[in-house]
Design brief:
Blueprint: E1 2-7, E2 13-19, H1 21-24, H2 30-43
Antiparallel strand pairs: 1-2
Length: 103
């Protein structure tokens, strides 16, 4: 059995307490402690971040100008990622960050 000192608010030792050996003499498993911490932190994440892709941005159905003869680069929509106000390529999407720990 392990013992621990009992101290008051001022820091003076007032007694000694016997701690159960089954709990306090066990070897520390840092891998399991890390897994438990990662599970707790991951389960606290909301995961509701999102951006709009070019398909989710409103507007941009018509071709902005004709394909040939303008001297400009060909474009299919004003909501493409290279346009201001266009969709985002590979932006964050909502997802589940939760983890489980085995028994």
């Amino acid at each position: 059995m392990t013992s621990a000192r009992v101290v008051d608010v001022s820091g003076a030792v007032t007694g000694e307490l016997e701690l159960p050996g089954a709990v306090f003499d066990a070897e520390v498993n840092t891998v399991v402690m890390h897994q438990a911490l990662m599970r707790q932190l991951s389960n606290g994440r909301q995961g509701t971040h999102a951006t709009r892709t070019r398909g989710k941005v409103s507007g941009g159905g018509r071709k902005p100008y004709r394909q040939k003869g303008t001297g400009r680069a060909r474009q299919g929509s004003i909501r493409a990622p290279q346009w201001t106000g266009g969709g985002v390529v590979f932006g964050p999407q909502p997802r589940d960050y939760s983890k489980k720990t085995n028994k």
